[in-house]
Write a structure and sequence with these properties.
Immunoglobulin-like, 2 domains, 26% helix, 20 strands, 7-stranded antiparallel sheet, elongated, 8-stranded mixed sheet
Length: 389
């Protein structure tokens, strides 16, 4: 069972939490489809881009649509999130139709929008090409939420950082606005000798990366031993936990509202989100050495994408120290890839080029348990503290 802390629950989820399993009137005005005593909608932060039809027997087919893209998609991430209101308890067959894409995320369900349970594997089947996923759902007389990952809206993501930094004397600031006008929020604190940077959720569905970021930040701030206190006194900590609020709240697969993969836009800076974030980081880092650059993501396995070990960086040794920490403390250490594309438009490539910082893309398996994701994040913080003392 996977739970989002109550303080981090989005308003839509709080509203749904009061529903429990009692009988509810069906939605009106915001439903995607409504017939046979069942209504399906996605009108909440993180709701997927869907259409649907409901058969006379109550079975439903829901399209899993993606956002318009300026360029052909990279690593498609077929995100879905919807809620079903039923006038009575029943078992229903719900099919996810991915058209030309294939299923990626194992479903989670929730009765209140905050406590999520993975749908048992025997309740989902696929067509031969995995372009259709057929779920057998036990609907309550009320509301059932279904999502590709436990929901974490832009507000939830920011609150993870706010809670971790509650008594840490950090500054929260708006460094820009998204294409839709949402605030872009960063946090800075610590000392002034060197700097570190940590970001996450450039890609909307990648919440296991956010869990690793959370483990990293909580360990970085909560350790009170001499090495950790010294680290925080000497390093300016620059955090950007929600650089793509439009994509996150809009239920996008991978892009912002401008149809751009933000982690292919570093260097071009065609989008207001990457432009504002890069300027914020350069301003806050100033002339300090950026010892580490951490960009937390999710993919089909846990893997660290790093620059080559012979890269010209004064802190390239951190990569060796980090791998050793993972290998000696984690029950399943991640893979490592030292491939590097300076023209790829990724944040890690820009970090190496701009700051001579060994930028890392820290990828967490889509299905990694929360405890394991946070443990990897905590090990990252420990390695950084021990390397930099």
């Amino acid at each position: 069972m996977r739970t989002i802390d109550p303080i981090l629950i989005a308003p839509a989820a709080l509203a749904a939490a009061s529903c429990g399993t009692v009988s509810l009137p069906l939605l009106s005005g915001s439903d995607l489809c409504n017939t046979a005593g069942i209504s399906i909608d996605a009108s909440f932060a993180g709701g997927g881009l869907h259409k649907c039809v409901i058969g006379a027997d109550g079975s439903a087919v829901i399209s899993v649509d993606h956002e318009p893209a300026l360029v052909e998609g990279i690593n498609p991430s077929p995100w879905y999130a919807f809620r079903i209101q039923s006038s009575a308890k029943r078992t229903a067959m719900v099919t996810l139709d991915y058209t030309d894409y294939t299923h990626r995320y194992a479903p989670y369900t929730s009765l209140d929008g905050k406590t999520w349970v993975a749908l048992p594997a025997d309740r989902i089947t696929f067509n031969e090409r995995k372009t259709r996923a057929i779920m057998t759902l036990d609907l309550p007389a009320g509301t059932l939420w279904v999502a590709a990952q436990p929901l974490s809206s832009s507000g939830d993501g920011l609150n993870i950082t706010r809670v971790a930094l509650f008594s840490a004397n950090f500054k929260e600031q708006q460094y820009g606005k998204s294409l839709e006008g949402k605030p872009l929020v960063g946090f800075t604190g610590g000392g002034s000798l060197n700097a570190i940077v940590a970001i996450t959720r450039q890609h909307p569905p990648e919440t296991t990366g956010e869990e690793a970021y959370r483990g990293f930040l909580e360990r970085l701030i909560s350790r009170q031993d001499a090495a950790a206190v010294s680290f925080r006194a000497r390093h300016k900590i620059i955090l950007a936990p929600m650089p793509n609020p439009d994509g996150v709240d809009g239920g996008h697969w991978r892009l912002n509202s401008g149809g751009m993969d933000l982690n292919r836009d570093w260097g071009k800076f065609s989008q207001p989100e990457t432009r504002a974030l890069s300027e914020f980081i350069k301003r806050e880092a100033g002339t300090r050495e950026v010892v580490a650059w951490l960009d937390f993501h999710s993919t089909d396995r846990t893997v660290i994408y790093a620059p080559p070990l012979d890269s010209k960086s004064p802190s390239i040794g951190f990569l060796t120290a980090l791998k050793q920490k993972y290998d000696t403390t984690l029950k399943t250490p991640p893979e490592w890839s030292y491939s590097h594309n300076p023209e790829g438009g990724t944040s890690k490539a820009w970090a190496l080029d701009t700051f001579k910082s060994p930028g890392l893309t820290v990828e967490l398996w889509d299905e990694i348990p929360v405890a394991d994701a946070r443990a990897l994040g905590a090990a990252t913080a420990d390695a950084l503290i021990e390397y930099s003392r």
